[in-house]
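Repro:
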Amino acid sequence: MNVRPFVVAVAFAFAAFAADTARADTVKLKNGDTLTGTVVSVLDGKLTLKTEAAGEIKIDLASVETFATDGEAKLEVKHPNDDGTDVIHSKVAAASGGNVTVQSAAGTQTVALGTLKSVNEPDFKPTWDGSIVGSSIWTRGNTVNQSTALDLSAIRRGLEDRITFKAWYRSARSEDPATGVSSTTERKAGGSLKYDYFLSKKIYLYAMTSAERDAIAALDLRFTAGAGAGWQVIEEKNAKFNVEGGISYVNENFSDGTDSTSDAALRAAYHYERVLSEKWATSFFNDVEAFKVFNGPRDYLVHAKAGFKENFTESFFAQEWVDWNWDTTPAGTKERQDVTYFIGIGWNF
């Protein structure tokens, strides 16, 4: 048996296999350095490169001159003049001037890195995100009081819609040391449900309803329901910002004999959150919702919330925030505004 052809064939196969496994994607930085590995993704302005020596590393896309892939990649390229994007499946070839080249249906195409919305972004799956934040204070001795606060939020983000549910509870009692008589100093609860339907990546329609009760403010029930439109200005991993406006119905019933009110209202709101430090896992959030009720020329309702959140682990975090409520037409002689400061521990789910 002549084994020489067999040995030669095996040698060629081994060489081809070795060459194939030695292939690597390349990333050229603006400082002239070249890194090799596998381009995992480009998301939120970061290029993730998996290297043999250092594992996965993240590189600011602004620091990248160009890159190339040996295998096919999925690129989402932003249109220069609108919110639209094109999806291209192609190998990526290096180019100069902060560009790459790809093969699309129109032929060879040059793509500026600044127009890359994503590379190899995972297929979207609806997700639920939520948190529970609780705080409690108990004091015994010369001072006797106790207070409890609980906040729940849950958000389901689908490809074309979003559901947001919120609920809150506040309770506090204090004892007069001279008489030993206890009294309730705070007791309120409420919840809201909101549905957003996205007409595009930025524009959506919403419908929402909310209900709340505040015993100390003599508010037996405040009910709102409404609809409108919103603009999702930013929706990224580390930053979110949206603004909304619409028409609502507001009904207020009071427990102290004050006349109930019921009328239409204009609603304006925004939500903002941003990661301030990935290293320290710290973020800032701010929510504002305002109603101009048509019941009177000075009938306004405003709720604002702002604070900070620090993650200890993926599940547990600390949160500090200020809650401000303003009602220009409160019950009887009640105050127009309530300001509460909170420090709590929470759980993400």
